[in-house]
Predict the 3D structure of the following.
Amino acid sequence: MMSGEEILVCAVQLGENFCLYFAGLECDAFCKEKILQRVLRNVNSQLLVVRPDLNMAAFEDVTDQEMKSGKGMHFNIHYYKTTTPSAGMPVAFSVQVEDKSYYMCCEEECGKMIVRFREGEVPKEIPGESNVIFFKKTFTSCSSRAFKFEYSLEQGMFLAFEEEGCLRKLILKKLSREDEVDETMKISF
């Protein structure tokens, strides 16, 4: 059975009788494969909305009318090819607000990792590590429609929401145990 994974090979030596010898190359770079457009919902069916003017993203109750205009809530999910499928599917997120494009990334601020939206495009190819890549994993083995997104540079850190007054802000949150089920990390398309 052939797997769908391609292995890069390059000729490294021309042996006797002109036999070619090949060496397998491991590629840790992320190369963009496809883009899906989706709204992201939390466990309360609220939609993730990005507000660049307020420099934040939060899950909100959205009317059908607001959803049609769709400012800051229709996400492009960029899927990348991977050589380590067990870690989860590498994805990046971007969103249009008015005529500008913003991508999601994680940055350290005052010793704490926070989720930011920066103006610009998601790169087509990402060599090695990147603060825009998240690993998409199924939320639990029995829920194939819901996912959690692990930050690629820090194992055990996931996108989640945190209640702050009446807001449900998008944050990065550490799982205390690998088998813990944390509903604030549950995101469905």
Q: What stands out?
A: DSSP finds one helix and 15 strands in the chain. Helices lie at 64-69. Residues 7-15, 19-27 have pLDDT under 50 and may be disordered.
